[in-house]
Design a protein that fits this description.
By secondary structure, the protein is mainly α. The chain contains 8 helices and no strands. It is 76% helix and 0% strand. Helix 1 packs parallel to helix 3. It starts with 9 loop residues before the first helix and ends with a helix.
């Protein structure tokens, strides 16, 4: 009789996570609507595309954030020793926050001058990043990561906390100027992609 195995396969979970992100990115791009010919006849196609720019900017910000999250999650799972049921549940909370990104991105893109819509998008970003921080801290505190990985990623952790503070600042800034919030988000996400590790 074979020995029972109650361990969780981290590679299988990471493949599941990657599939979810692929679906979310697909939904995200599907929210960009092609201008209809029957739309406002007074507008040229060029003017119609210009009207879509806020949606494109919102999309680019969310795309950069999800891409950065995928890189960090991938590195985390490459170095994690094992996963536990609690860690899977925490990951699923993180996935829940990511799954809301297509809605909050489309909402902010369609209502780019509405401070509430833009603030809601950044609330989604902040919650998602805090949950990712919890993933890292849980793995660190429960000895799921090698100490060398924790040491090597200290600078990345500092940048992540600065980024979260910037996103928190973007929430009230949306009530001053929504364009500043969008610009701050894109700056933070692009900077995250070009960090050392």
């Amino acid at each position: 009789m074979s020995e029972l195995n109650f361990n969780y396969d981290k590679k299988r979970f990471e493949a599941f996570f990657d599939a979810i992100l692929a679906i979310i990115l697909t939904i995200l791009v599907l929210e960009l609507r092609v201008p209809e010919r029957e739309g406002d006849p007074a507008l040229s196609t060029k003017q119609q595309v210009v009207h879509l720019l806020p949606s494109f900017i919102s999309y680019i910000g969310s795309f950069l954030l999800i891409f950065g999250i995928w890189i960090d999650h991938h590195l985390l799972f490459l170095n994690i020793k094992k996963i536990t049921r609690k860690y899977i549940l925490l990951n699923m909370l993180f996935v829940l926050s990511i799954s809301l990104i297509p809605f909050s991105t489309a909402f902010a893109g369609n209502h780019h001058t509405d401070p509430f819509a833009v603030a809601l998008l950044f609330v989604n970003y902040v919650v998602m990043n805090i949950l990712f921080s919890f993933l890292f801290l849980f793995a660190k505190n429960w000895d799921l990561l090698p100490p060398s990985f924790v040491e090597e990623t200290k600078d990345t952790g500092r940048y992540a906390y600065i980024g979260i503070l910037g996103m928190v600042a973007a929430i009230p800034l949306a009530y001053v100027n929504t364009g500043i919030s969008f610009a701050l988000g894109i700056l933070i996400f692009a900077g995250h992609l070009f960090k050392r590790r």
